[in-house]
Write a structure and sequence with these properties.
- The two termini are 48 Å apart.
- The chain folds into three domains: 2-54 and 469-549, Immunoglobulin-like (Sandwich), CATH 2.60.40; 63-152 and 225-460, TIM Barrel (Alpha-Beta Barrel); 161-211, no CATH class.
- The chain is α/β, with parallel strands linked by helices and 553 residues long.
- Helix 7 packs across helix 8, helix 8 packs across helix 9 (291-298) and helix 12 (372-382) packs parallel to helix 14 (449-462).
- It is globular and about 85 Å long.
- The chain contains 15 helices and 18 strands.
- It binds calcium ion (CA).
- Calcium ion binds at residues 74-76, 78, 80, 82.
Length: 553
Amino acid sequence: MKRFLRWIASVLCAVLCLLAYAQNQTTTGGGVGEPISLSSSPVQMIDYNKGLEPAACDDDYRTTYEIFVSSFCDSDGDGIGDLNGVRQKLDYICDLGFDQIWLTPVHPSATYHKYDVDDYCAIDPSFGTMEDYEALLQDCHERGVRVLLDLVLNHTSDTHPWFVAATDYLRALPDDQEPVFEDCPYVWYYTFSREPYDGFVPLEGTSWYYEARFWSEMPDLNLGNDVVRDEIASIVRFWLEKGVDGFRLDAVTSYVTGNPEANVEFLRFLKDTCTSAKPDCYLVGEAWTDRPTIATLYTSGIDSLFDFPFADSEGVIRQVMNGGYAASDYVKAMVSAEEAYGAANPSYVDAPFYTNHDTARSAGFYPQDDGPATKMAYALSLFMPGDSFVYYGEELGMKGSGKDENKRAPMYWSDDASAPGMCAAPEGMDDVQMKFPSLEAQMTDDLSLWRWFGEVVRVRKAFPAIARGTTEAVDAVSDEGVAAFVRRYADGEDVLVVMNLRDQAAQKDLSAVAGNLRLAAVLNTSEEAIAFENNALSLPAYSIAVLTFDAQG
Ligand code: CA
């Protein structure tokens, strides 16, 4: 009798497995490469999305990893992250699906962050050599990964030879004499005045003041001056000739403080200078400001600007996840952004991000959350169209807020501070307690944040519409907790995205959406499965379904 029951059980199991296999064959979307494994992970997304392959990408719609160089990976044991460390982690970066990296400044500088440059055409020795940088470029390009150089043009360091020459000259100049351009053109590289204007600081040992908006040790460059522009043009050409793919432009709203028209004009100069040296050079600017100002800056023709209104602790994403905004407001905000930016520059590429080296890390935004809300928040950012940026360590839910050093904690490769690659904490960093485990531990957990990130990026890249399409709200499906939108891109490639952003399951009737819908990818934060049958979509708490429109009949 026992043997008979076992036989019945094994026959039943075989039939169920066959059914499950057939089901997967009909519901799994996008270039299915290999048969679905029947070893069945308890997490639906791991099996379900397995066949998804990234669509070919040679445009600007990338998924970009921001690396704070000194805290990422130390290759030589001095505690400082470096270029060879980045090279060692390229497989890690590519396995997560990133196809572009932005390194924070690599130029010689006395600070750990290096946003005060001493020499724009060299590499800081603590990060490596120019040969290391060239090797990094080559390694990246072999993998199809583009490299963005962080270009800090608003100011130099006060130890930059230009500023030293200018200030030495002014200190030696008799008080009753005016500087002469031919004697020291470097005076015109900055803005000196005998008046203490707003944003100016005194030049010690003289009666002069100089513009330094951020810090007395970061004098502002006089970007309206042609001698400075000639220098910038040669710097840009120097790096483009090395093979750099583009630039991340620091502090563009401060180029000419409080003068958006002048900033537009300077950005246009930069864009023209870059494209004349390399037609596909990509530029993304940091304009920490509101949507109308960002839209104005897009009239310069710059490719991308970081989409600050969605980011940080007060942005759309956090507001949606903590209930301050409805889920449907996320869709509305995307539609408004696309209208505003598209009107300013029809070929713009949005640059969504959630956090960066200047903001608090997102794991601290949801103190009660043990993972799902943190995961969904990042998916909101990665499901926005454009070139999506992710700050290193966010894929692990690293923590860090308060003083800047805390936001730049050593990449949490391992719990063991002496493990290979681990960096020392930036000087002055508080004792930051991590909330989620290290990479080592997360790699063994099918429901870890790290695993989630890889799956979200996999889905983003498998459907070109997600990064490249135009958002169309689906009001019949969206509500307080569910965001639904169609991303229109090309015939047969549009996708419907439905996201349950709350901790309760949601049932949604999709019959209001015209077309022959097929469940193509799933993102779960739990072992509860997403189901789709007869236009009825069941979404467990904190989950996402991506549906495609199949040809009728
Ligand atoms: Ca090092």
